[in-house]
Amino acid sequence: MPSGPLNAISDVAGVTVGHATLAQDAIQTGVTVIRPHGGDPFRDKLPAAATVFNGFGKSIGLLQLQELGVLETPIALTNTLSVGAVATAQIRSAISSNPEIGRSDPTVNPLVFECNDGYLNDIQAMAVTASHYQQALDSAAAEFAQGAVGAGRGMSSFDLKGGIGSASRYAKIGGKQYCVGALVLSNFGKLPALTLAGRPLGQQLGPQLLALRQPPGEAPEMGSIIMIIATDAPLDARQLGRLATRCGIGLGRTGSIYGHGSGDLALAFSTAQTIPYRPQEALRQTACLHDSLLDPLFEAVADSTEQAIVNALFAAVTVNGRDGHQRLSLSDLAARLPT
């Protein structure tokens, strides 16, 4: 399917992404923030839904999101032990814009997703602070880096360097064109399972990794992946849940089996309309697409999710982290293959 001009989640108009990257010695981590639109999501919420493929995770905010079907903060990504710090930063940021939160207004639902970057990063240092969340939020833009940046700095995929990846696809429905964008925090997979465009690339790369004295891990799958989908198609929360489920198709194409120790989650949101916080404010009604017309969007989700995972691998650079641990990038490993 055709991609947008940036081939990124930000091809969906109004969506921006920012990073704060910590990369010094044993500290290899960070924060990535997705802003769903340019305004205040607490005042102008967006329809959203999440799907849990394997719930080995410590994310914050999914319970209320699933109940109410709305997104009311930016989406934050970080490492597992920094979820609390980032959620606190999100709450403080929302209060600074809406001083009555928790007083005359309801409390805010922070939304933080995580993966465990403890192989490369000294995760016990809990180096991520509120200032890093704010830095990522303030730097959000349509054009953003991918690979070993932000929350992706310390992540591993298929025994190689993983991280942030993004892609987009256009889908035509009834003469109209809609954009679907994906962003992943990729931290999953075992090298022998790595599949690229249907080819068993991991089986070809395994001997090369062994030759470099970096054997593929033999431990069970202990990684995770967070998959975020944005679209400008007019969909309600129930339909967005159906889109989020199709992330599993793209994930499976790359070689994932949703291992026991892997936290695999997807969230989808639509920018086609906003839902005002105050009930007295007018709710602009937007007719949702009929369910029978959603197949092109399903295909776009699967395609863009797969491409985002691949892009994370190719955009990553080799990273050295705590206790001498190293993750080679796919590009560095491939360069060592015999011609």
Give a summary of the structure in a few sentences.
The chain has helices at residues 62-68, 83-97, 130-138, 201-211, 237-245, 247-253, 295-315, 330-335, and strands at 16-24, 27-35, 44-55, 70-71, 75-79, 112-115, 156-157, 160-161, 163-173, 176-187, 224-231, 263-270, 275-276, 319-320, 326-327. It is of the alpha+beta class and 339 residues long. The strands form four sheets. Strands 3, 4, 9, 10, 11, 12 and 13 form a seven-stranded mixed sheet that branches.
CATH topology: L-amino peptidase D-ALA esterase/amidase
Terminal Cα span: 31 Å
Shape: globular
The CATH architecture designation is 4-Layer Sandwich
Number of strands: 15
The run of helices and strands is EEEHEEHEHEEEEHEHHEEHEEH
Overall mean pLDDT stands at 94
- Which structural class fits the helix and strand makeup? alpha+beta
Total domain units: 1
CATH classification, class level: Alpha Beta
List the helices and strands and how they pair.
Blueprint (H helix, E strand, L loop, with lengths): L15 E9 L2 E9 L8 E12 L6 H7 L1 E2 L3 E5 L3 H15 L14 E4 L14 H9 L17 E2 L2 E2 L1 E11 L2 E12 L13 H11 L12 E8 L5 H9 L1 H7 L9 E8 L4 E2 L18 H21 L3 E2 L5 E2 L2 H6 L4
Parallel strand pairs: 5-6, 11-12
Antiparallel strand pairs: 1-2, 2-5, 3-4, 3-12, 3-13, 7-8, 9-10, 10-11, 14-15
Helix pairs in contact: 2-3, 6-7
Protein name: Peptidase S58 family protein
Family: Belongs to the peptidase S58 family.
Pfam family, one: Peptidase_S58
